[in-house]
Specification:
Layout lengths: L6 H14 L6 H11 L5 H10 L14 E3 L3 H11 L3 E6 L8 E6 L2 E6 L10 E5 L3 H10 L10 E3 L2 E7 L5 E7 L3
Parallel strand pairs: 1-4, 5-8
Antiparallel strand pairs: 2-3, 3-4, 6-7, 7-8
């Protein structure tokens, strides 16, 4: 598995693959896309991380990606892609009639959605700290998703928007306010 130190070769491979499909992009654009895939805002941030090398602490957690149990791909796509605005990064099945395992992402947040019974238990809650929760709430409200109209609540010094997917999994978006 590649990590952020392989970013330049990943960008080169991305450029070459897109060029082969008559969708050329610049090297700079490819670097920005790779940085976003690592959950970072820009190539400058990623390149600074590469330049830092190893941290003093031999243990360094880079990110956590929750696995969310789903039972119906169409309903999951309606909720995660249509309502929440995520995009599919990749999909995997062991065969044509096997359960789906996929990664979706939006604005740096990545989730793994799985139809595999042993991967996760439905009904869990994922907490996501973020900036721009009012804008997120406005986007969600404007989409008029027929099964949910999430509110924006102030709770103990933070703003929260909680959504529940069709499989009873909750995502609690939080923004700390008043710092």
């Amino acid at each position: 598995m590649r990590d952020y130190r392989d970013a330049k070769s990943m960008a080169k491979a991305l450029r070459e693959a897109l060029a082969a499909h008559d969708a050329p992009i610049t090297h700079s654009q490819a670097l920005e896309i790779v940085a976003r895939q690592f959950g970072l805002a820009s190539w400058n941030i990623l390149s600074a991380r590469i330049g830092d090398g190893m941290t003093q602490d031999p243990i360094a957690f880079e990110r956590a990606v929750p696995i969310v149990r789903i039972f119906d791909v169409a309903k999951a796509h309606e909720f995660y892609l249509g309502f929440l605005g995520f995009s599919v990064d990749w999909e995997h099945r062991f065969g044509s009639d096997f359960p789906l395992y996929t990664q979706v992402s939006h604005a740096g947040l990545q989730l793994h959605l799985s139809e595999h019974a042993g991967d996760a238990t439905p009904g869990g809650t994922t907490v996501v700290y973020m900036k721009g929760i009012r804008a997120l709430h406005a986007e969600l409200t404007a989409r008029n998703y027929r099964y949910m109209r999430p509110g924006l609540e102030e709770v103990d010094g933070r703003l929260e928007v909680t959504v529940t997917d069709p499989f009873n999994n909750r995502i609690r978006f939080m923004e700390v306010i008043g710092r």
